[in-house]
Amino acid sequence: MNPDQMPSAVPLSICKDVAFEEGFFIATSPEPWLGFAKFNPSFLGRFLYLRYSADIYEPPVRPVLRFWLGEGNYRDQILPAPYDGVGVWLGRIPSDIKDVWISPTNREGKFDFEILEVRRPTVVELLRRGRHSPKRVFFAASAGMVGLEEEAGLNWRWALGCQPLADYENWRRQRQDTSNRHAQRLGELTFSVYLDVSGASGSSIDKSCESIERQSYANWRAIFHGGPLDPLAERTLASWLGRSSFTLMQGDCPPDPSHYLAALHAGDTLADNALETYAEHLVRHPDESIVYADEFGPKPVFKPGWSPTLQAFAPYIGRSAFFAGSIASRSDSCRISEGVEAILHSALDTKSQKIGSIKRPLFQLSESAGQRLPRRKAPEAIYRGQSLRVGVVIPTRDRADLLQVCLESLFGTTTYPNYKVLIVDNDSRDARTHDLMARMTVAEPRLAILKQPGEFNFSALSNAGANAVESDFLLFLNNDTRIVTPDWIERLLYFASQQDIGAVGAKLLYPNQRVQHVGVLLGMGGVAGHYGAGLPADAPGWLRRNLVPHEVSAVTGACLIVERHKFEAVGGFDAVNLPVDLNDIDLCLRLGERGWRTICNAETTLIHHQSASRGGGLRLQKVYAKERRFFTERWRFVIRDDPYFHPALSLYAAEAALA
Known about the structure:
659 residues, alpha+beta, 10-stranded mixed sheet, disordered N terminus
């Protein structure tokens, strides 16, 4: 055997919260742990190539690899999810490993998981992966040579943790599990694929029909509709109508309510296992009436979990979905002859449907088919209801230069009338700061000062401000921000005043007009980060999220509004465990536990001199290591799989890249 390579299938042992019954692992908690039964860390060196597989029909989950370092210390690494059945990770590992565990899933119940390969990567593999981040590779190698282990590890994670979307086809081939693709089988569920052939060519009709006919699941039928067609396309259509399971749509005859319907255009294709994957999903989730999936091809589309706000402002589901036939039977707004696609989109606009997603590549949509339905106008997201009291809370310590810009822009720009501002002064000593606050309180009756001496504790300062200000809504604002959008409060209130929404944040720009924040991505960089940062202000970003309101798991406390009763229901910011770092994200996650979504309204813009008084980078990671450990222990199950992101995308890139 090659001395750098262990056997292709690596034995796993049970470590924690796992049972083994009838040939299957059973997770007894949301964080089960398996161990590498025959693992010799010394044989690997400093880099590891790991290949693993999971059940193709279960939602892909990012495994967590845990390196035990002795004396109860460990270091966790979030791995790429086995997107199409197989996952691959290449990375740097600690030098003093005592043991290695892996948590394959974040759900209780039966699961399949196997380590297929563990070995030392070749130099060529490392160079190929790192070629897209030469600066990171240089910094990583340089830091390692002078003994700066943490700096080296951080840069290696960013250098090796992503691949460009342009590499998708090759990337996907390496991650496809074909071992459980079996002969065509018949299930209880029936799928009806409505194929719009309007203006289609014969080759595009063939392409779609052949993909339907190749399905590994046999219980389906294809229904043609639309026209007119040229003579060649007519002959092609006639040849398919001569086969069983291919028919023409008959007027407004409603579909069988027990069937699941899809609306494809000629030229669209299904992955060979698409219907089988849907059948497995719907058996496990029978309450879901609409289920959408990812799109593969030269321009793959990776979609987040159900995001109704994003769908309303930048529709992302398209026609890559199946929905219950009962929706078409009950539809008052659209008849079947007007198009199955129209019925789907009408149903997506209602709140009565349970909508699910399959984060697998199951559709390839034809670009030549074009847009058949008129584009919907996005809602006007500006609050116009009764006047609600807003209390703006600004914690500060000195930095009169920043505070003055913040206050002048706030009072000089804001159009919303019913607000008050409370500065929570944490031991400011600079005479210029005291002079500024004195002048501003005289000039502006809506401004008040609350003295809060003591050690800097952002959470405690914010909580004190919330308790002191009388308002229906609390708007936490950093002292290093500048208002750009005049009706910013109205735009934030539009969402914050909705019953099912908790925290709402804004789009923050650096002074150079590059994006600093359009929402927080859990897991980014290992804990959390600002996905979409660094792009130009007008860049659309992933699924156009940099331009429109959208769901996120958290927003930064630099600009965060929340209804008072919701804030108080979760106990405000955690001043005990998270005095400075990650408290805003923790607040959003606790609101989420109560069922209140978090929204980032990217149509609302502020300038932010991020952490101008505190610095940033690796230094802060070290300073707030205790807080980061508490946060990751508390929220690891969601850090590893942010529901508003995608498990195939990299956590080590600020814009869409492959994991």
